[in-house]
Amino acid sequence: MNDRQDVNVPMRWVVRALFALLAVYAVMAWFRPMLGAEVQLAANVPGSYVEVLGIGRHSASAIFVHGLGSNAAQNIPLVSRLRQKLFQVSFILPSADPLPLSAFDGAYHSAWFDVADLQPAMDAPLPTREDEEGIKKAVDRIHGLVQKELDKGIEPHRIVLGGFSQGCATALLAAIASKEKLGGVICLSGWLPLSYKIAKVGPRKRHPMQAEHAHNMPVFWGHGAADPTVHYLWAEQSLDLLADMGFRDIEAHTYDDLEKWLERILPPT
Predict the structure, then answer these.
(1) Which residues are the signal sequence here (predicted)?
(2) Which class does domain 36-265 fall in?
(3) DSSP track, 30-85
(4) Which whole number is the average pLDDT over 240-263?
């Protein structure tokens, strides 16, 4: 005699089980790191950098520099969005080393150079004293990343620098000082460092680190009017100085326009 009995599972339990599996998958997808766990882990290593390869043939590069107190992971959401259309672009995301910051009484934080004041007055002009040595070291590091891309065979005009806040200041000065004719520079909520050293040379003003050809480089500038840290006044003054330095291809927009600007500067080849 066979004691086994057939068990009829009600359809509603099957449906519930399927919905439960879908829910688990959705939660896992939601919490999965953008661009994968390996990229996320590498982006959190101080003093290193992570490269996010383009989906298509690598024919252009964009180097994005994070802001004060952050690391390369700050730029992952932006890169995750941009690479959906910029198939040919490889994104290089460096992380700063921890530095003793005067603004924090010498405490160590991730930074590209030292800062003395994190909350200047709303009407405060551009700084009149900055960590020149630290700024130049940060610029040299970005130039080293540019050289790595050149060594891969990427043409200089197919390389764009960009950054946010202190990273913007670093990227902007690295672009201005580059001996190569780069494709452009993206400035997000930043300022022009060492502006107090700008002097008139010939028919126009000149930054002491400005390369001879730098004024021909396209500039994208995005800045929030209510930025509480890098005030909008600094953006206005920086843009005025760039114009005085001979820059003509300057686009000052909201962040939503960044994608269109990059598509124009780095079109598919």
Answers:
(1) none
(2) alpha beta
(3) HHSPTT-HHHHHHTTSTT-EEEE--SS---EEEEEE--TT--GGGGHHHHHHHTTT
(4) 81
